[in-house]
Amino acid sequence: MRRDIKEHLLATKKEANRQVERVLAARAAGTLNVEILRESLFIYVLAKFGLSEDEAPSHTMDELAEASLAKALRTNPHQVLETDRPATCDGARSVDMKQALLIMTMQREFEVKLDGIRAGLADTTDDLADLVFTAFMQTEAGASR
Questions:
Q1: Which residue stretches of the chain are H helix?
Q2: What residues are paired with 124 via a beta bridge?
């Protein structure tokens, strides 16, 4: 069992890295578009959350984080919500913390800077991809001045 977990973690890490490389290569080649970014970012989030496509309830960030926590805790997503009591003084839930850590990691790996508030309020992976795409375009516009 321990070996299965290790192999799963390595496989999801590799998949996330493949998606980062795909996006950065397309960006460097000037072929990146929002559809490619949306697809890659969805797969990236699934990999980071340790989920397969058939385990993804939707593209909604909250539902993906809940499914990920439920899988890790071997429970169902509804129980995650019911039992998740904020352990921090700021009242952040585990689902919120998971998303915040994902966004921070994503910014580092995709070499992009996002408005933290807007990124945190992104409802879906597509919303998050749109923010990343806009940030990429703004960075390129600023570099060409």
A1: 2-29, 34-48, 61-73, 77-83, 94-109, 116-120, 125-143
A2: 60
Q: What is the largest CA-CA distance in the chain?
A: 55
CA distances in angstroms from 112 to 14, 65, 80, 106, listed in the order given: 20, 22, 31, 8
**Tens-digit pLDDT profile for residues 126-135:** 999 999 999 9
Q: Which range of residues forms the domain containing residue 122?
A: 2-143
Q: How far apart are CA 141 and CA 136, in angstroms?
A: 9
Contacts of 73 (CB under 8 A, 6+ apart): 80
28-77 pLDDT per residue, tens: 999 999 999 999 999 999 999 999 999 999 999 999 999 998 888 877 66
Domains: count for the chain: 1
The model scores a pTM over 0.85: yes
Alpha carbons within 13 angstroms on the beta-carbon side of residue 5 total 4
Phi/psi for 60 (5° steps) reads -75, 130
